[in-house]
Design a protein that fits this description.
It contains 6 helices and 14 strands. The protein has helices at about 10-15, 20-35, 55-65, 140-160, 190-200, 210-215, and strands at about 1-5, 40-45, 65-70, 85-90, 95-100, 115-120, 125-130, 160-165, 205, 220-225, 240-245, 250-255, 265, 270-275. The strands form 3 sheets. A 6-stranded mixed β-sheet has the order 3-4-2-1-14-12. A 6-stranded mixed β-sheet has the order 5-6-7-8-11-9. Strands 10-13 form a two-stranded antiparallel sheet. Helix 4 (about 140-160) runs parallel beside helix 5.
Amino acid sequence: MKLISWNIDSLNAALTSESDRAVLSRDVLNTIKAEEADVIAIQETKLPEAGPSKKHLEELDKYFKGYELVWLSSAPPARKGYAGTMVLYKNALEAKADFPKLGAPDTMDAEGRLLVLDFGNYYFVNVYTPNAGDGLKRLPERQEWDKLYADYLSKLDKDKPVIACGDFNVAHEEIDLANPASNHMSAGFTDEERAGFTKLLSKGFVDSFRYIHGNIPDVYSWWSQRIKTSKINNSGWRIDYFLVSDRLKDNVKKSEMLDSGTRQDHTPLILEIDM
C-alpha cells in the first residue's frame, strides 16, 4: 500500500486560482499524481460547508481519475471556509467513512478536522490538529483535543490496526525543528503539546519516520511562509506525521517527505506499508 498525506493550505485556491502560489500547489498535485498512491489524505481544504463544487470535482478528476473521495468541511458554529479534510482512495478499494466527534471544546468538532475510513483490515485516520494559536490563546483547548484524540485512536486500535496521518501541529523533539532553543513558547513546540504527543505514542503508536530513519537531522515537513528564506535555509519544522499501530511498525517499508519544490508551507508525506 502506498499512502500520501498533505496539508495543502487551501484545496479551493489550488484548484480555482491563478496566483503564483496556486500554480506551485498544482505542481505538487502533479507530483502526488505521479505516485499513483492507493490513498491520499488532504488537510486544510478550506472548502465550503457543502463541500467540493462541480468545478472542484472536475479539476480533481484531472489529477485523480479513478478515485473515490470523502470530505468533511467546517460548519456552523465554526468559521466558514476554515480547516477541512478530504481522503481520496482508488475505486478498487472498499471503505466505510466515519466523521467522529470527540466532544472537543470550542468549535473544534465542527471544523472538519477528523475523517476516518475503515478499509476492512485497518482504520485510516486523517487529522488536522488544531493550532494553539498566536499567543497560545487556544492552548488549553488544544490540550483537551490532544487527550480526546489519543483516547479515540487508542479505542480504534483495540478493534484493528490504525494508520493515522496528517498535520499534528507539533514538533515532538528538539531534532524536529531547526531552532528549538528560541521556540519553547511557540505554538507547536510548547512542553504541553509535546507531552500530549508523547502520551499519544505511549498508547501503542509509532512515528513511522523516526522508526525508519532514526535520529536523522534536518528533515522537515513545514517551512514558514512568513519568512521568505525559510525553505532556502531549511529552517523548518517536522509537524506532519504518519503514525502506525505498534504491531504494524515492521510492515513499514518507506516513510519520508515528497519534494514540493520551492513552495513553502507543508510538503507531502509518503508511506509505503505492507498490509
